[in-house]
Design a protein that fits this description.
mainly beta; Immunoglobulin-like; about 45% strand; globular
């Protein structure tokens, strides 16, 4: 099975506080949370890290969700359903009410290396 590498560049982080949590999935039903996807890949890195690498990925279609967990409590804090911490997605789709659909963030991983530039967004 062909494998590839994904490099994720994270832009516009508000601070270096806490951690950045990434979730990479090929399962539309488990995007963006990845909670029921045994094959999802997750990473937590210090918020001072702006490049994250995923090596040895099977080729295919994926979507990536990123949160800036500034207080390190392992979840995206919200107020009345509105994120109080930073978030971003592969392909930087427009944000309306709620997270974008898998199709809006989907990208193909087909070559030896792919790069996704994720722009973090903050509402508060």
């Amino acid at each position: 099975m062909p494998v590839a590498r994904l490099d994720v560049a994270i832009d516009h982080l508000r601070s270096a506080d806490g951690v950045v949590r990434l979730c990479l999935t090929a399962d539309p039903a488990n995007f963006p949370a990845c909670v029921d996807d045994a094959r999802a890949l997750t990473r937590s890195v210090p918020a001072s890290v702006h490049i994250v690498h995923f090596d040895g990925l099977p080729t295919g279609k994926y979507a990536l969700a990123v949160i800036h967990d500034a207080n390190g409590n392992a979840r995206l804090d919200t107020l009345a359903g509105i994120p109080r911490e930073g978030f971003g997605f592969s392909r930087n789709p427009p944000i309306g009410f709620g997270a974008p659909r898998f199709a809006a963030a989907r990208f193909a991983l087909s070559g030896s290396a792919e790069r996704q530039q994720v722009r973090m967004r903050y509402i508060f």
